[in-house]
Amino acid sequence: MEIKYGLISADSHAAFHRDDFTSRMSAEKWGERIPHVAEKREDGGRADGWSIYGLPPRGDVCNCPAVMGDPFPTWPKVWEEVPALAYDPKERLKALDGDRVDAEVLFPNPPGGSYYEYGDAEFELACVQAYNDVLADWRRASDRYLPLAALPYLSDPKIVAKEVERSVTNGHRGVNVAGKAPKGLPHIAAPHWYPLWDICQELNVPIHFHGSANLDTAASAKKWDGYSVRQAHSAATSTSAVTPAQIIPHFIFSGLTERFPRLKVVFAEAGIGGLNYVLAACDHEWETRRLWTEGLATRPSEAVRRQMYVNFWFEAEGIKLREAIGVDNLMWESDFPHVASYYPRSWHEIERVLQGVSAADRRKLLFQNALKVYDIEATVRRVEASSSSAAV
Amino acid sequence: MQLRYGLISVDDHVQEPPDLWTSRLSKSRWGERIPHLEHIDGGQRWIADGVTLLDSPARAAALMEDRNHEPKNWEEVSPAAYRPGDRLKAMDAAGVDYSVLYPTVAGAAGQNFARLKDPELELACVQAYNDWLIEEWAGASERFIPQCIVPIWPPEGAVAEIERAVAKGHRGVIFPAVPMDLRDVPHVAGPEYDPIWAACARLSVPLCLHAGASPKLQYQPYSGLAPALAQALDAVTKPVSSVFVLGLYLFSRVLLRHPKLRVVLAESALSWGMLYLEWADHQFDHDGLAREGYELTPSEMFRRQCYLNAWFDEIAPFEPYLGADHILWSTNFPLATSTWPQTQATIERCFHDVSPEKRDMVLWKNAASLYAL
User: Fold this and answer.
1) B373 CA to chain A: closest CA distance, Å?
2) What's the domain count of chain B?
3) Terminus of chain A with fewer CB atoms < 10 Å: N or C?
């Protein structure tokens, strides 16, 4: 990969073409169950959504307000309104250049990468493979895309591991994981999932938890029918700040970081405060309770610094704590083309957030850490991650 | 108020003795439903009306030889957990002047009696606790700062008990932050609860939302985990679950509706606070909430009305943003997470680069003002 701008987004979202699944899954076998765009019955005109497993269409046809123009934020109602910039990997490179971003890690967009809720393991695997194949094609279109594989949770863990291996062979650079295992399956700390962690460690691809990571924690505290849509959005998204602090302790105290010391774990769109808290709180309990006597040989903060990463995008105050959190454990994220994205003015926001940060630290936060985490060889043509050259 | 050491601990726990409720509730009326200790599987548990209130006779691991194990039988519980005289000696040893008291069997967040199905039994248990704490602890020394628990529903019942308890000498109100997780009652953000918040403001007693009001606020441990590790895990996911509580009380306008209400997030820890508030403010801007009738941003509401409670966090990195006047200190005695017996050494580690004025604010001045000492 070539680094021209000095900026990698560790969290963006690949949008899907309406034919992405129908062109890859067997119509004979799956018919109407294949994820496809269909018209929702809605008051106030036509609206499209995704129909999956033969169920009525729901959700947005595409989540891409960052490329919809004014008034912001607007979501496309029907497929024809979705800009090619979102779903066409070649077109999208123009958006990357426009925002002066070298590369992006690809998380899901509707219809998403989770197909376990239909309780049909065979269907889930077929969808997951199609999903992973779509993103492998993105990677073939350009090495500036770093796709994350989806997982067939309902399959035998050996098949899960195999799908990870297949995806990584096809160009995927990580795995996106639900924070809480789907209903009926063992807890994420259970030995059931060891083959998954093992293959990710072996292939040196990080696992990822995004936003609230599907945790059902505090469902009643986050939701209240007295909130307006915007208030509900604020209340729900900002509390994703807890996600790293609810998940990392499981990796530490369940012995996963001891068992898989080279497994890398990334938290996207969950803020950076959770990591800061975990460092202090886990060490406190480890020391106070003398947990090395319980089989945890490694001081938790050492394991966290060695294996855990969090992404930032707006945290000007938080970045002041970068030394305490770990300058090597932070990566920039754009969230393109979602509502949190500052596209096409990402650098403008970066200048605000990174005020007073040394050039060496800026390079780490903006692209060098990502190159390391995703194990990418890059030619750094010009390092523009300094305030003078970036202010275009 | 008299200070010898310069420390008011705003979050410690009393251990209720085995006869607290059996000696105060009518045996003829309630029979076996009264909270009591039962022998089960080689250890003792607290049971009331078929509900397990606590799966051990006490939470006092800091006083055990190995703090990875709670006492299994009452005989193993150290008197410093349940006897005011022994507690005062422990406070002297740790250098604690005043101690703000939270329950154990009744639930650290005052949540356990809300889980009983019978509101009359709930009220009887709550009143017995509130009376006992005044008579046995507050009566033994003014260094103990008693706080009442309340029946969660109906609100007028909660208000009546708050008024009764405060008249008896209680200085704070412990309320389980998410009552709708405990019993079939309305969502706490709704106006139905306004009389409770108004009563706290009117009586000038802080509303204390202690971490751990509901297991649903935390990601629960894997069942195959060794108990010591599961407890350590719980001790880490619990304080930070206060993010959900703070977010709820900020965005739902409870604080805007009650500007004189002061809210203590007990056992919240500190290291997440500034970063959560920065996000809450960012989201508030990004979602345009200023146009939806909020007259303050989340961090402004926090700095007007809320307090975080630290016991192992460094203060210096967060104090400039949160405000030294909104951080409180505690020892969390006698829980496993307590800094006991290293309280003073921990304070030295956590307060480096903090000015003497701000150190005093966090260690005692804020608490003295909050509890009108």
Assistant:
1) 31
2) 1
3) C
